[in-house]
Every structure is written in C-alpha cells, then in structure tokens.
Automatic annotation (TrEMBL):
Keywords: Arsenical resistance. Gene3D superfamilies: 3.40.50.2300, Corynebacterium glutamicum thioredoxin-dependent arsenate reductase, N-terminal domain. One of its GO terms (biological process) is response to arsenic-containing substance. SUPFAM superfamilies: Phosphotyrosine protein phosphatases I (SSF52788). CDD domains: LMWP_ArsC (cd16345). This is Arsenate reductase ArsC. InterPro entries: Phosphatase-like_N (IPR048716), Ptyr_pPase (IPR023485), Ptyr_pPase_sf (IPR036196). PANTHER family: ARSENATE REDUCTASE. Pfam families: LMWPc, Phosphatase-like_N.
Length: 221
C-alpha cells in the first residue's frame, strides 16, 4: 500500500504512521466495497479539509480517518452497496459548531441505532461552541467528541432528509430529497443561559422529526 499522503512533506513521522494506520483500518473495513485507491483518496481529501486549522492539528490523522469513514459509508449507501433502509438525516448550518451539533447530539441520543444522522457546515468553524457543549451536558448529552466539518456531495446525496439552519444558498440542493429549514437563533457568542432556549427548541424539533420518520425514541419500543 502506498502512503495515503506521500506528497505531504510537512508531516511528522508520527503523523505519517498514524495516517498509514488509518488507511489500513479503512481498507480492512471497506475491503470488497471500495478499492484501496478510492479509500486513500478519501482519506487524503479528508485530511486536507482540516489541515489548515491549527486548533485540531494534533488530532488531524484521527479526524481524517473519522471523516473519511463517514464519507465512504455515505458513498456506499449512494451506490447501493450498503443500504439497510435506515432513515438518514443531515443537519446543516454555517459553522457546524452550534445548532447542527446540538441537533445531531439529540438525534443520536434519542434515536440510538434506529436512525443515522450526520452534520456539516458551509463554512466550518475551528471548534464547537463551548456554550452549546455546556448546555447539552446539562441534559446528559456529550458532544465534545464531535468537530466542525464540511458537508460533501456523497454525504448530502446519501441523506433522506436535509435539515438546514441558516446556511441559505450555501446549503446543497439535490432532487428527490426532503428539505426542512429550521429557523433557529444562532448560538454563536451567546451565554449558556441564552443557548438553553435554543437547545430546548432543537429537542422539540428533533422529537417531531423522529416521529414523522417513524423512529421510536429512546425508552420507547
């Protein structure tokens, strides 16, 4: 296997080793579904999405692997190579740092493994809004493991429902998708106290969405 980032001369030895390990992990997971070349291309382009953001530099290989895995799973669904029929929702906002991350957190918490959710931003920020993290922690949902990331074509195409939150014309439009625009206050720069109201409205909207999709929420059968 060639190194997935052989042309990146600025990588440390540890980063190169971590990315080689990531490529091996993804190749094992998607063996028989995608070629090594496709897997390495997705890993390389995923790495490049985060490379300019110093705040995540130490975690670049991990972020690249996680994002590449999500994109490959989406592509497999689009190409009919792995489509279980599980409802899939994409939450989009501008920076993928507040509203869409809280919606993702609630969706995953309430739906568990009965539905799939992703999130993305038209202009991803550097980190998740600390006030959003704190507000979600108050209701027992930990979103610290998430990170701002862009949406990609295969992720948007794989979604059954696309929920937009203030990204306007920058949000993707694909025929045949169900779209909803949630008019929510942007939590950027707001206190935890102010974010609580936004959080609670998001919970209500996510619960309604799950009901419409026929997905039982946590604690229901």
């Amino acid at each position: 296997m060639t190194h997935p980032l052989a042309s990146h001369n600025d990588l440390s030895l540890d980063q190169r080793h971590a990315l080689y390990t990531a490529a091996a992990n993804l190749s094992a997971e998607f063996s028989g579904t995608f070629s090594p070349e496709t897997i390495e291309r997705f890993l390389r382009t995923s790495y490049d999405q985060f490379a300019g953001r110093a705040t995540v530099s130490g975690f670049l290989p991990l972020l690249a692997e996680r994002f590449a895995r999500q994109r490959l799973r989406a592509l497999a669904r689009v190409e009919g190579k792995h489509d279980t029929g599980t409802p899939t929702v994409l939450f989009l906002c501008v920076h993928n740092a507040g509203r869409s991350q809280m919606a993702l957190g609630y969706f995953q918490h309430l739906a568990e493994d009965r539905a799939i959710a992703w999130s993305g931003g038209s202009e991803p920020g550097e980190r998740i809004n600390p006030a959003a993290v704190a507000a979600m922690a108050e209701v027992g949902i930990d979103i610290t493991g998430e990170y701002p990331k862009p949406w990609t074509t295969e992720i948007a195409q794989a979604a059954d429902v696309i929920i937009t939150m203030g990204c306007g014309d920058a949000c993707p439009i694909f025929p045949g998708k169900r779209y909803e625009d949630w008019e929510l206050t942007d939590p950027a720069g707001k206190t935890v106290e102010a974010v609580r109201e936004i959080r609670d409205e998001i919970e209500s909207r996510v619960r309604t969405l799950l009901e419409q999709l026929g997905v039982p929420v946590r604690g229901q059968r």
